Amino acid sequence: MTSPIRVAVIGVGGMARHHIRQMLTPALAGSAREMQSTTRIVALCEPSEVMALEAAKVFVEAGLPPPPNQPNWEKLIVEYGAELDAVFIITPHALHHDQTKACLEAGIDVLIEKPMVMTAAEAHSLIETRDRTGRLLVVAFQGSLSPQVRLASRLLRANEFGRILTISGLVWQNWGSLTVNTWRQEPAFSGGGFLFDTGAHLLNTVADLAGEDFSEVAAWFVQNGRPVETIAVVMGRLVSGGLVTFHACGEAIPSCNSEIRVFCERAILHTGIWGETLAVQYTGDQPPAPIPVPPSRGVWEQFLAVRSGNVPNPSPPEVGLRMAKLWDAIRASAANNGIPVKCEVNDDSQSNGLE
After folding, report:
1. For residues 158, 263, 201 and 21, what is the CA-based torsion angle, rounded to 10 degrees?
2. Does 195 lie in the same domain as 127?
């Protein structure tokens, strides 16, 4: 029998507990032995006693003893590093770089929540650390990890629908009211507002589908009386000349949804920022036809598949760099009332080396 993957979870807030439930799914279904054969959560790291207690309840509900909580992430690495194969980092954005770098340097593979880092400079740093240590680093972008977006990207790269003309992406949520009095609205910890949080999926998945770098962007932010942007519009031009629009409304009615339309010469490809759907439309007389795709196994199962060598890494730190370069340019343009900003472009910008 294959030894279970020994993992620690750093940060156990609401989103982390969602991921933990997915990691414990076999146990919740009544098969704790099956869960233990693939994943063993050795320790948690959460400075908030309230959040740590909430996380412990998830294990109790699954019929498992809660793992110990070490509230200091640096002490966690020292105390448990020799027992760990991987860590899942789900902390405020500003902490991602230092925590990931330390784990990689300790010889531990990392699954890191989105956005990977705050800036392109931090992304370059993590790529250097990954290369130097030889460890695995996967960014938990549901879009890039989803079978739907991976298939869509392959079809677009194969010119199945003709040249990409334009891409339109939209995400909306009542994020502004939901995140009041949380770190997500503290710029020093979050690095941005709705467009950099939920909207990070929009930026990443559109860039993934485009398959090339942006040459320039123009952006406008509206804070709506909050410390960070909750409404944003971005226009971008791809290196090939294709045009892209991003629309993020974080002050919507209670909801959380998205749409992406890729307009090609012979078809319109329909999907969402989490890769939750995939359909193609060849004529306006017929509705989009679903493209059959196996269901997503979730970010942790995808991480395990990559780590075991069963699939190539679809969301390496180069994905985090791509997103960070785009965000750097968007933030600079918004700070200057929409003045277009040139983007950092790779020499191999037509593919980004990600397919």
Report:
1. -70
2. no
34-65 pLDDT, tens digit each: 444 589 999 999 999 999 999 999 999 989 99
Q: Could you tell me the two tokens for 124? A: 């370059």
Q: What is the pLDDT of residues 327-344, one digit of tens each?
A: 999 999 999 999 999 998
Q: Where are the alpha helices (DSSP H) in 134-198?
A: 142-145, 147-157, 175-178, 187-190
Contact status, residue 345 vs residue 120, Cβ threshold 8 Å = no
Q: What single-letter DSSP state applies at residue 182?
A: S
Domains in the chain: how many in total?
Answer: 2
In this prediction the pTM is: 0.92
Same-domain pairing of 164 and 26? no
Do 150 and 289 share a domain, yes or no?
A: yes
Sheet holding 137-140, edge to edge: 39-45, 5-10, 86-89, 109-113, 137-140
State the pairing for strand pair 256-264/137-140.
unpaired
Residue that is last in its domain, among 86, 115, 142: 142
